[in-house]
Specification:
The complex is a heterodimer. Chain A is of the alpha+beta class. Chain A is 30% helix and 31% strand. Chain A is elongated, with a radius of gyration of 37 Å. Chain B has a domain of 222 residues: MetI-like (MetI-like fold, Orthogonal Bundle), CATH 1.10.3720.10. In chain B, a hairpin with a 4-residue loop joins strand 1 and strand 2. In chain B, helix 1 packs antiparallel against helix 14, helix 6 packs parallel to helix 9 and helix 11 packs antiparallel against helix 14. The mean pLDDT of chain B is 83. Classes of the chains: A alpha+beta, B mainly alpha.
Chain lengths: 767, 332
C-alpha cells in the first residue's frame, strides 16, 4: 500500500513537472517549430516503407528509365550514294576523355558532309549544321585513325590520307582544313582485298613519339602490298633539336597461291614485330615485315623485306578446305591466356561450317571442327555460316544462313565452339551484310541485314563455374525504322566523365536521313531521371528524380532520416551520459581525479575535431557505429566541463550538507541529490549534441567516410560530387534536398535546445 | 614575477604538454591505420625484393615503433617534415612555399593560402557580427531582430559543404562569375584578379556560416550588458541612442567576442577542411585529405602538426588576452 502511494506521488510529480515545463516550452514559438520538424522526420523514419512514392532502399531504376536512348536524325539529299557515316574522335590524351568531335558522311559521287559536334549535358549528342566538302569519287573504306588523327580511305588504286586538325580546345575539328590536301599513295594495281588498318602509337623506340600505321592490300591476287606510313618527331640527344620525320613506304611481294580472302595485319608488342596473315587457296601464310630504321635517330624509314614465318594448309579428313568468303579469316585475342600479347589465335571459316583454329605464333593447329548450333528452336534444320567478324577482345561473331533466315552466333576461339553450350545464337530477318566493330563500353554489336533491319546484340555476362570464365549470351533489342541504306556502323564512344561511356551507332536510312543512336538500355550514358517524372520503361513515378546509379532520391531522403536520427540520437545520448557521469564524479570527488579529468577535457576541447574525426574514421573503418563512437568520444568533454561546474556549486548548497549529516552515502548523494538537479542541463546538452552529431555525420559521409551499407544525406551529396553531377540541371533535387533536410533536422534539434535553455536558465527568457 | 607572468608560464607549460599528448595521439592513430603507406607503392609487380626493402627502409618501416615515434617527435619539433611519399616533394616547400627545383615553378605555401582565406573570413565575420549583433540586440523584439536570429540559426545549422555546392552551382556554373575550382589562380599569384575571384565564393560561404555564431554571440553579450544599470543611466541622461549603443553598450559587450576571436581563427582553419575540399581551394585542409587517402604520411603528419599548432597557439593567445583583460583569471 505504501509503495503504491509513493509510486502515485512520483507519477503525480512527473505529470506536474511535464505540465509546467510544457507550458514554459509552449512560450517559445521557435521551439514548437523545432518540435514539429522533429516529428516530421520521426514520422519519415518510422513509416519509411509506407510513405508515398518511396521504393525499397535497394531499388534501382531499370536501365530503360535511367538511360536515355538518345537519337539524332538529319535529312540528307537522296540522290547520293552514301557510305556508312564515320565518326571523328577527339585526340587521345592522358586524363582527357575521348569524345565524338563530329560525324563525317561521304558519298561515292564525291560529296561529303561534316557534322560538327554540339555537346551539352541535357542533350548528350546533337550535331551542328553540316559543312559540305568534296571527296574523291568511289571512295571506299574510309576510316578515322584515332592515334594518328588521320582520316584514310581507298578508291580503286589510291590510298588517301587526310590530316584532321583540332582547334586549340582539342574538342572541335578545325572545319576549314578538314578534308583538304590529302596525301595520296598510288598502287600499281587495283586493290581487291584489303586488310584492317593498324593504327599504332609507340613511344619507346625513340625519345620522341613515333606514330606508325600499317595497311595492307593485294594487287593481282598474287601480290601483297604492305604499306607503312610514319609520322613523328624525335629529339636529337646532343643538340636537343626536334627533328620531324614523315614517310610512306610500300613493299610488294608475291605469294605462290591465289589470295582469296582479306589479309590481316597485326603487331606483336613483345618483339615489336609487324606481321601479315595472307589467306590463299592453298595455304594461310604468316609473313613478318622487317622494317628499316634510321641509323641516327631510330625511327622507321623503310621496309627492308618480308620473311615467311609459317604456312598452314587447312585439311580435315584428307579434304582440303579454303576460306569461304573474303571475311572469313580473322585474328582474335584469347583473353584467358595470360601470356598472350597481340592476337594469338587465328580463326578461319570454310565451307560446310568447317572451322580451323591455329596459333599465330607458329602456325600449329589448336582445333578443327565442324561448328553447329544447338537448336533451341525446333524449326531450325540447318545453318550455314559464311562470314566471321572479330570482336575487339576475345570472341568472334559468326554470321550465316539457316532455313529460318540469317543467323548470328557467338563463337569462342579457345574451344572452337559456339558459346554457352552452342546455344548462343540468334535468328535474324534478311541476310547479314555487316557486323559493326565491337563496342567495348557497352558490350554491344550492331548487325545490319539486307532487308533493312538493324539488330543490336547485347552480350549478357555470367560466370560459368565449371569453365571458370564468362560466357556470353546474345540478345537482340533494337531495330531502326525506315529500313537501312548503308550498313550500320559503330561510331565510337562519348565519354561523359572518366567512368561512364556512351556508345553511338550510325546509319543512313532509306528515308534519306542520317540516323544516330546511343546504344540504350545498357550501362552507358545517361542522364539522371529528372524530378516529378515517370520512368520511360517502367512508368514508375520518381518524385524527386533519381541519382546517377538509379536510386530514387525521395526514397533515399526518407530512409536517410533513419541514419541521421540514429546517429544523432545515439551519439548524443552516449556522449551526454558519459559526460554527465564523468562531470559529476570529477566535480563531486575533486582532488587528483578532477585534475586528471579536466586536463583530458582540455585536450579534447582543443583537438581540431573534424580533422581528428577523419583520421579516426579511416582507422576504424566506415561503419555507422564507428561514426557514433567517434562523435561520442570527441563530444563528451564539453558536457563534462559544464556538469562539473554545476556539481561544484551544488556540492556546497545547504541541502547537500543536510544529506551528509543525515548519513547519506556518496552514491546516494550523487544519484538522489545531484543527478536530478543536473538532469535538465543534461537534457539540454543532449538536444544541442544531436544537432552537432548530425552535422558531423553528414560531413564525414560527404568526405567519403560514411557507412556504405546505409543511406545518408551526406553520402547522397558525396555521390553527387563524385559523379560530377552538381551542375546537372536534372539533378537539382538531388543537390538541394539532402542539404535542406540536414539543415532542417539539425536546426530543429537546435531550436528545441534553445527552448529548453530558456526553461533551464530563466534569465534567458524574454529575449 | 607578477601574477600575469606566472599565469603565462603556467599556461605555456600546459600547452606544450597538450601538444605532446595530441601529437602522440596522432602517431598512435596513424600507426593503427590498417593500411601501411609502403603497401600502396609496393603493388607494382615490377619491383624486386631489394627495391621493396629499400622502399621500406626509406619510409622508416624497418625500425621499431618506439624508434619511429622518437624520430617523428624530433622531426616535428625541428620542423623537419621530410619528403612526400607520393610526389617526392619537400613537405616544407608544399606547406610554406618556395621554388620547386624540379619544375622551376613557384609553389604557393598551403599554410599561407589557408591563413589568407580563413583569416579574412574570421576577421570579416567578427566585424560584421559585432555590428549586426549590436544592432539587433538594440532593436530586440523587432522584425529585424527575429528575422536575423532565425536566419542566423538556419545558417548555423547548415552544412557548409552543401552551401558550397549550391554556390558553385549558381555563381560558378549558371552565372559563370567565378571559377568552378578555386585552384587555377596559382599560375598568377596572390596579386591577381584570378586569386580574388577564387577567394570570393569560399570566403562568402565561410562568412555566412561563421557569421551566424558571432552575431548570436554578440547579441547575447549585448543583451547582458543592456540590463546593466549604467546603460539605463546613460539613457536617462538623454544621450543619443547611437552614442549609448556604440559607446556604452557595444564596447562593453565586446569582451567575450575578443577572446573567442582568436580561438575561432584557429578553429576555422581546422574546421575548414571541408570548405577547402568543396571548392578545391589549395589549403592545408585539402592537402590533408588528399594525403590521408594516398597514405602520404609525411604530409599527414606535417599538416596535422601545423593545424594543432595553430589551434593551440590560438588558445594560448586567447588565454593570455583573457588574463590581461579580466584580472580575476590571473588570480585563480
Amino acid at each position: 500500500m505504501a509503495s503504491s502511494m509513493k509510486w502515485d506521488e512520483i507519477k503525480r510529480s512527473i505529470k506536474r513537472s511535464v505540465k509546467t515545463n510544457w507550458n514554459l516550452f509552449k512560450q517559445s514559438k521557435l521551439g514548437l517549430v523545432g518540435l514539429g520538424i522533429i516529428t516530421f522526420f520521426v514520422i519519415l523514419a518510422v513509416f519509411a516503407p509506407i510513405i508515398p512514392y518511396t521504393y525499397s532502399v535497394d531499388y534501382l531504376a531499370p536501365a530503360g528509365d535511367l538511360f536515355e536512348i538518345d537519337n539524332y536524325t538529319a535529312p540528307i539529299p537522296s540522290h547520293h550514294q552514301w557510305a556508312p557515316p564515320v565518326s571523328i574522335l577527339t585526340p587521345q590524351q592522358m586524363g582527357k576523355p575521348t569524345r565524338v568531335a563530329g560525324i563525317w558522311l561521304y558519298s561515292q559521287d564525291g560529296t561529303g558532309y561534316f557534322y560538327p559536334r554540339n555537346f551539352s549535358y541535357s542533350q548528350l549528342y546533337r550535331l551542328k549544321t553540316p559543312v559540305e566538302k568534296t571527296v574523291p569519287k568511289n571512295m571506299t573504306h574510309m576510316e578515322y585513325l584515332l592515334n594518328n588523327k588521320k582520316l584514310v580511305g581507298f578508291d580503286k588504286d589510291t590510298f588517301y590520307i587526310y590530316s584532321v586538325n583540332f582547334m586549340p580546345n582539342e574538342m572541335d575539328v578545325d572545319v576549314n582544313s578538314f578534308m583538304e590536301n590529302p596525301e595520296k599513295v598510288h598502287f600499281a594495281h587495283p586493290m581487291s582485298y584489303v586488310s584492317n588498318i593498324w593504327d599504332y602509337n609507340i613511344t619507346d623506340r625513340t625519345s620522341g613519339t613515333v606514330d606508325s600505321v600499317i595497311a595492307m592490300a593485294t594487287g593481282d591476287n598474287k601480290t601483297v602490298s604492305v604499306m607503312i606510313w610514319v609520322y613523328g618527331k624525335v629529339k636529337d640527344p646532343i643538340t636537343f633539336m626536334t627533328i620531324h620525320y614523315h614517310g610512306v613506304y610500300i613493299y610488294n611481294f608475291t605469294v605462290n597461291s591465289t589470295i582469296i580472302a582479306n589479309p590481316s595485319v597485326d603487331f606483336n608488342y613483345r618483339n615489336g614485330q609487324h606481321w601479315v596473315i595472307v589467306p590463299t587457296e592453298d595455304y594461310i601464310y604468316r609473313y613478318d615485315v622487317n622494317l628499316a630504321y634510321n641509323g641516327t635517330y631510330g625511327y622507321i624509314d623503310g621496309i627492308s623485306g618480308v620473311r615467311k614465318v609459317w604456312e598452314y594448309s587447312m585439311t580435315h579428313n584428307g579434304e582440303k578446305y579454303v576460306p569461304v568468303s573474303p571475311s572469313s579469316v580473322s585474328l582474335v585475342y584469347p583473353k584467358s591466356d595470360q601470356a598472350a600479347v597481340g592476337k594469338d589465335i587465328l580463326v578461319a571459316l570454310c565451307k560446310d561450317n568447317q572451322m580451323f583454329g591455329l596459333y599465330t605464333k607458329n602456325g600449329t593447329e589448336i582445333w578443327n571442327t565442324t561448328v553447329a548450333i544447338n537448336p533451341q528452336d525446333a524449326r531450325i534444320h540447318y545453318v550455314d555460316f559464311t562470314s566471321l567478324y572479330p570482336s575487339v577482345r576475345d570472341y568472334v561473331i559468326l554470321a550465316g544462313k539457316s532455313n529460318l533466315g540469317s543467323v548470328v552466333a557467338e563463337f569462342d576461339p579457345r574451344l572452337g565452339e559456339i558459346m554457352n553450350n552452342k546455344t548462343s545464337y540468334l535468328t535474324l530477318r534478311g541476310d547479314v551484310n555487316y557486323v559493326s566493330r565491337y563496342d567495348l563500353g557497352s558490350h554491344t554489336y550492331y548487325v545490319s541485314t539486307t532487308e533493312g533491319y538493324i539488330y543490336q546484340l547485347n552480350e549478357s555476362f555470367y560466370t560459368d563455374i565449371t569453365q571458370g570464365y564468362k560466357v556470353v549470351g546474345l540478345a537482340k533489342s533494337f531495330s531502326v525504322l525506315g529500313g537501312v541504306a548503308t550498313p550500320v556502323v559503330f561510331l565510337g564512344n562519348t565519354i561523359i566523365n572518366t567512368n561512364l561511356v556512351g556508345a553511338y551507332m550510325g546509319v543512313v536510312t532509306k528515308q534519306d536521313t542520317l540516323y544516330l543512336q546511343a546504344s540504350g538500355g545498357t550501362r552507358i550514358p545517361t542522364i539522371v531521371i529528372p524530378p516529378f517524372s515517370y520512368g520511360r520503361q517502367s512508368h514508375n513515378f520518381y518524385l524527386l528524380g533519381s541519382d546517377y546509379e538509379g536510386h530514387d532520391v525521395w526514397t533515399w531522403l526518407v530512409y536517410g532520416s533513419r541514419t541521421s536520427l540514429l546517429v544523432g540520437l545515439t551519439a548524443a545520448v552516449i556522449s551526454v551520459l558519459v559526460g554527465t557521469f564523468i562531470g559529476i564524479i570529477s566535480g563531486f570527488y575533486g582532488g587528483w581525479i578532477d585534475t586528471l579529468v579536466m586536463r583530458i577535457v582540455d585536450i579534447i576541447l582543443t583537438l581540431p575535431s573534424l580533422v581528428i574525426m577523419l583520421l579516426m574514421a579511416s582507422v576504424l573503418g566506415p561503419n555507422i557505429w564507428n561514426i557514433v563512437l567517434i562523435i561520442a568520444v570527441l563530444g563528451w568533454a564539453g558536457i563534462a566541463r559544464v556538469i562539473r561546474a554545476v556539481t561544484l556549486s551544488l556540492k556546497n548548497r545547504p541541502f547537500m550538507d543536510a544529506a551528509r549529516i543525515a548519513g547519506a552515502s556518496n552514491a546516494r548523494m550523487i544519484t538522489v541529490h545531484i543527478f536530478p538537479n543536473v538532469l535538465p542541463l543534461t537534457f539540454l546538452y543532449m538536444t544541442f549534441g544531436v544537432s552537432g552529431a548530425i552535422l558531423s555525420e553528414a560531413a564525414l559521409a560527404f568526405l567519403g567516410l560514411g557507412d556504405p551499407n546505409s543511406v545518408s544525406w551526406g553520402m547522397m551529396l558525396q555521390y553527387l560530387r563524385m559523379y560530377g553531377q552538381q551542375t546537372n540541371p536534372n539533378a537539382w533535387a538531388w543537390l538541394i534536398m539532402p542539404g535542406v533536410f540536414i539543415t532542417l533536422i539539425s536546426l530543429a534539434f537546435y531550436l528545441v535546445g534553445r527552448a529548453f535553455d530558456e526553461i533551464v536558465n530563466p534569465r534567458l527568457r524574454k529575449r | 614575477m607578477g601574477p600575469l607572468a606566472v599565469y603565462t608560464i603556467k599556461r605555456f607549460i600546459q600547452i606544450i604538454i597538450t601538444l605532446i599528448v595530441i601529437m602522440t595521439l596522432i602517431f598512435v592513430l596513424l600507426e593503427a591505420l590498417p593500411a601501411k603507406p609502403y603497401m600502396l607503392l609496393m603493388q607494382s609487380p615490377n619491383l624486386t625484393q631489394q627495391q621493396k626493402e629499400a622502399m621500406i627502409h626509406q619510409m622508416g618501416y624497418d625500425k621499431g615503433v618506439w624508434q619511429r615515434y622518437e624520430i617523428y617527435m624530433i622531426n616535428m619539433f625541428t620542423f623537419n617534415f621530410g619528403r612526400s611519399f607520393s610526389t617526392g616533394l619537400n613537405v616544407s616547400l608544399l606547406l610554406f612555399g618556395g621554388y620547386n627545383p624540379h619544375t622551376h615553378q613557384y609553389i604557393y605555401g598551403r599554410v599561407w593560402n589557408t591563413l589568407i582565406l580563413f583569416g579574412l573570413a574570421t576577421i570579416l565575420s567578427y566585424l560584421i557580427g559585432y555590428l549586426l549583433g549590436a544592432i539587433i540586440a538594440w532593436k530586440r523584439g523587432s522584425l529585424v531582430d527575429s528575422g536575423t536570429v532565425v536566419g542566423s540559426l538556419v545558417f548555423y545549422n547548415m552544412p557548409s559543404f552543401w552551401l558550397g555546392l549550391i554556390f558553385i552551382w549558381i555563381f560558378a556554373y549558371q552565372l559563370g562569375w567565378f571559377p568552378l575550382a578555386a585552384n587555377g589562380w596559382m599560375k598568377y599569384g596572390y596579386f591577381s584578379i584570378e586569386f580574388v575571384k577564387a577567394l570570393i565564393m569560399p570566403l562568402t560561404v565561410l562568412l555566412l556560416i561563421s557569421l551566424a555564431g558571432t552575431t548570436l554571440l554578440m547579441r547575447t553579450s549585448m543583451l547582458d550588458v543592456m540590463g546593466e544599470e549604467y546603460i539605463v543611466t546613460a539613457k536617462a541622461k538623454g544621450l543619443p541612442e547611437r552614442t549609448v549603443l556604440f559607446k556604452h553598450a557595444a564596447r562593453n559587450a565586446l569582451l567575450p567576442l575578443v577572446t573567442s576571436f582568436v580561438i575561432a581563427l584557429a578553429f576555422t582553419v581546422a574546421g575548414g577542411v571541408i570548405t577547402e575540399q568543396v571548392f578545391t581551394y589549395p589549403g592545408v585542409g585539402l592537402l590533408y585529405i588528399q594525403a590521408l587517402t594516398q597514405l602520404d604520411f609525411p604530409i599527414v603528419y606535417a599538416t596535422l602538426y601545423i593545424i594543432t599548432l595553430l589551434v593551440l597557439s590560438g588558445n594560448f593567445i586567447a588565454d593570455i588576452l583573457y588574463g590581461i583583460l579580466d584580472p580575476r583569471v590571473r588570480v585563480q
